[in-house]
Fold each of these.
Amino acid sequence: MLSILDQSNRYLNDPLPSENIAPFTLCPFWDDGVIFDGTPEGIFYEITADDTQVTITFEFLYAQFPSQDRTIHFLVGYSTARPGVYTYTYLQVPDTGDGATVGAQYGSPNLSAVMFSYNEAVITPGLVLTVDTNKGVITRC
């Protein structure tokens, strides 16, 4: 999960919208995960900018709890050229998202959400999703 303004330590995933997490939360792969010591795992980011936009990419590389052998690897991208639009790119997913929530929630005081999947085996390596919180849609790219 990637939350704006609030945080959550909730590790059990819910369908969206969920009052158990922050109102503004991206859920590229909400499932149990762990970063083990002594591994190249982590959460990384890169920011680039030019005269027209700022782009940030978050890279998530971690193990699916409790196994160190089940690696989850995906990217979350955002550009100021497209406010409210995010890209989820899946590089490695051990169980195709069978126990994960994928989507986003937004809005305050009225909570809205867009959800691609909830505990469904539909997330595969190479899948790219565009999450548009302005239109309330998720599309495959």
Note: The chain is about 0% helix and 50% strand.
Amino acid sequence: MERCFKYFNEPANFNDCEYAFNMLPEGPEPIIWKNRLADRGDPYALPFQVVHGSCEIIFQTSGPAADQVNTLKFPGNELRRLAGRVMDQCIEKPGEGQGGGFITRDFKHLLQSITFPGTPFFEHFPISSTFLTVLIWNRYAHAQKGHFAYNPGNQDQMVAEEIEEQLYRAEKRWRRGSSSRLDLIKRQDAVAYALPALEYVARGTPNWFDFYPAPTLCGEGEDREVGVESSIPGRNCTGVARATSRQRRRGGDATDE
């Protein structure tokens, strides 16, 4: 999955990003990256950040189980390939309203896990569902908003919309009223509930998996009432939220990376 947009309407400077890109590790041999309990000053600790001028490149793990991953092996050349795609698609085209963006790797692993009924949705989520994200943005722009950690694999609205869409498709493969279908509907509701809070990148932006189970607003399972206002201002029942999010999807191929 790839997405380009202007973070805080401030594009990253291409020359700064090109310099930062050249600072990334390279070579075909896998690098052992430390995701948990990394020593202070470890050159391959995640999240891995490279900064020059206005541009920041961040390589990190994403997903509900990411904190359980101790180490991972990933070549410098592959990191450069992913960052290069973001550079080509998002940084070289600021005149088109872009200037920042991200790309995922192994996002399909998350989708395979989350669309399988019975897989724990949050607690004890499979480590194999963890995926990788490379983000390039203007570090000055988000520093002006108050520096904060941002993980698009956990907090970007388009990522959540794609997860919700895949859950919707998976739900339709199961018999109406079955425990598997109801389980998938419950997951959709949780992601749909999180979507409005992911619209803007800011300090305190939640993760798409923070609201499971979603508050019961409109009834249970397939019997919930759709099209009425919920008890929370600005929110409709989750069936409407799901349909609306599918209509406003902004593209991106979840199976690409």
Note: The longest strand covers residues 55-62.
Amino acid sequence: RIESLSGLEARGITRVLPSERHGHSVMGYIQMSLLWFSANISANNLAVGLLGPLLFGLGFLDSAMCSVFGILVGSAATAYMSIWGAQSGNRTMIVARYFMGYWPAKLPCILNMILMIGYGTIDCIIGGQILSAVSGGSMSIVVGIVVVALISWVVAVFGMAIFHVYERWAWIPQVIVLFILVGSAGPSFNANLQNTGDAGAITAGRLSFFSLQLSVPVSWAAASSDFYVYYPESTKKWKVFLMTMTGLTLSFTFVNMLGIGLASGIATNPLWDEANKVSSGALILAGYGPLNGFGKFCGVIVALGVISNNIPGTYASALGFQVLGRYGKMVPRYFWVCVIVLIYFICAVAGRNNLFDILQNFVALMGYWTMIFVAIVLQEHLMFRRPGLAGGFDWTAWEDKTRLPLGLAALVAFLVGWAGAIIGMYQNWYMGPVAAKIGGIGADIGVWLGCAFALVVFPPLRYLELRKYGR
């Protein structure tokens, strides 16, 4: 009865056959960009921009440069992973089986679920903070968290059709109110803000903030194909890459520049400084301060904008339960959506006063494994797949363990990559021995060492695996 509801997507991880997909259209390609633009032009990503000046001590120019180039690298990785959805008709974590094997692919699946739950937690917190600030503190952050979680749950339960319609239009009010924020807060931005600390500290800050900015867009890499499975099999890969890259880059760059601008003005604007001591959401609302009541209305729109970011992650993580095994697959997708929403709602309530710590530690930590995963996929694709059925992949074998790679080489390379990330990571609770040597104070290079280790280890191991097992 539930699955008979109009607009509800009953399909889970089952492959979408070519005969079940819609046709080519210009709007279909535009929707690719709109989806990612709408999902990421949100306050949670704006909050990441704050960290350049506030946490890493970078000036306006250095923060902006690290942000732009980090976003470009991270967006390119996610855009690459997005090409497999239309080609295969399979979800990203099903596609992972073709690169890491049936059983080893469950490891990135679990990590991706944790990642998406983490971002759902961040979205709820920042949305709750802004709504609480709009009310002058009379409404608790918890009530705002409930609002964000509830709307995200409704759209994610119905699935792909409603999701695409929502993302097609949700960006419009966001763009309007964010441009209003530029006009309202822009005069207080300090474009002349300089770096703080000695040369070593500045270098360490640049490395860490660049890696953090890369980690945010690349966090979509393990889910990006999920939203293209209904596109025709003949969809051009370069078009998928270009449209995805465009949507990601424009949205992340815009909101991060706003975040950097707000952070740069704190030192010279006492009202912003006081607001920042309350929460990141209060700081965003303070940017609308000159507009009085209308500014609060804009703040509400910004708060509700995090829902667009929350929906795709909720959708993708719910599918992860079905990828993990046949018992999870037997349970409908919409039930797992309810579980995911409940989990990140509880996490958001528990961590509502620790947003900066979550942003700094969680986002970078999750960026490590996604870049390692992308590196393995890229090498398998370019070095070991021969031309043949569907470009070297038999997409009908998505559930057949005997026709998929064993994944031993990929698993070892993934774990070795993690070892590299561990010795290069820099977090509040742990500093790797290599990371500690940078700049005298330490810097986060975990994502780079992790990728390097995986890139070196995977090719010879995969060659041996093919020689011995033939798949």
Note: Residues 292-323 form the longest helix (32 residues).
Amino acid sequence: MSSDSLALLRKNAGQDIAALAEEHFKHDLQDSDRDALKSAASKISTHVSIGSIVGLGLGVFLAFRLRRSRMQMFNAFRANEKPTHVKFADGREEAVPDMTPFLRPSTLGDVAAYTFFGFGGLFVGGETGILTGSASAGRTISRDPESRERIETAFRRFRADVLRKEADALDKRKGVSELLGL
């Protein structure tokens, strides 16, 4: 398994493309455009961080509620009178085993609940943060129409340069993975 499989460990697309992006960032945009892009990136990061923390907290809270309800259900089951024998129609009697120890909430179950609910909340909160942060960043960039137009033009030029680089690499029979530095 490659380290690129996990988003956390993934590297950028390559030094060539990063340098090309930096060049477009410096030459095609004005200072106010660069500030708007940095502000938008900061908003996304903030929203993702807050969403992840809230999601993790919500996941742990739900795991706690689940554990508490499992314990209450077990205590109610344990307190109820349970049959000890079953009498069949032919008159035969069989003992019913006590299942109480098998129904008791375990530490392993608690660990699994906190782990899965925590990771689930972290994922949902982080993804929600990406959505709300992207919307907020889009509003930040779209606030000034002239600036937005310059940013879109710079991005189109950057994409065109990347595509030209990929086409040159393919013409030289270089693989796309070599081009991207993977």
Note: The radius of gyration is 29 Å.
